[in-house]
Amino acid sequence: MIHDLLYIIYYEMRETLDQAFTWLTPLLFFIIVVCLFPLACGPDPVLLTKMAPGIIWVAALLSIIISIGNLFRTDSEEGFLDLILLSHYPLSLLVFCKTISHWLTHCLPLVLISPLLGFLLHLSFQKECALVVTLLLGTPVLSLMGSIGAALTVGIRRHGLLLPILIMPFYIPVLIVGSATILAEAESVSGYYAMMGAFMLLSMAFAPFLTGAALRIGVTQ
Question: b or e along 171-199 (b: 16 or more beta carbons within 10 Å of the residue's beta carbon)?
């Protein structure tokens, strides 16, 4: 079973990477949004340093919202989603594998490019490290919680802003704690890391089951 689940992750990643626009669009959006703020707010290093955590986290959040809506849509349009629902494997495991592939192809590039954008916003080395760690802990939460909304709207065509409205309340705590972690002093940063880790573990424990249930509801719509 492990071999089959790993193959699902590999297959989903290969399909995504073969269509460059599906993973390049959120990445370019992330870079463009972050780069526009120094142009709009001016080159003041102190101001940019204070704004940097919020800028990067909001840009990452919006980039993931752009991509998460297609998590199940292609499978639904091509008829593969019915096979997933009828599979003898637990639906939560299959959903978790698809979410992992989404994180590797859409969220990991954001994490890897974030140090360069942090340097653009005059973040110190300590804050750069905090930025990378918080994104590594927080972006899986955004993907997992976003998969619930993607499953609910998979049967709705032209859902427009429905998906962001559904998942945004789940994103706000991660956004607040992630931004506060980067601005926190070195002595108190471990507590923020613990909160981000708790968010990630809780989402990994419950989100796949909720997504599976939402997927069954979304398909019947």
Answer: beebbebbbbbbebeeeebeebbebbeeb
The total number of residues written for the chain in this structure: 221
* pTM as predicted: 0.90
What residue type is 13 in one-letter code?
M
Best CA proximity match to 97, nearest among 17, 8, 18 = 8
Distance between CA atoms of 167 and 183, rounded to whole angstroms?
Answer: 25
- Assess whether pLDDT exceeds 70 at residue 221: no
Angle 197-202-206 (CA atoms, 0-180°, nearest 5)? 155
Phi-psi region of 157 (alpha: psi -120 to 50; beta: other; left: phi over 0): beta
Handedness of CA 39, 42, 46, 47 (dihedral sign): negative
pLDDT in tens, 114-162: 999 999 998 888 899 999 999 999 999 999 999 998 888 887 776 667 8
Specify the DSSP class assigned to residue 31. Answer: H
Q: For residues 53 and 121, what is the distance between their CA atoms, to the nearest angstrom?
A: 9
Distance CA 14, CA 44 (A): 42
User: Which pLDDT band holds residue 186 (cuts at 50, 70, 90)?
Assistant: low
Cα–Cα distance between 10 and 118 in angstroms, integer? Answer: 31
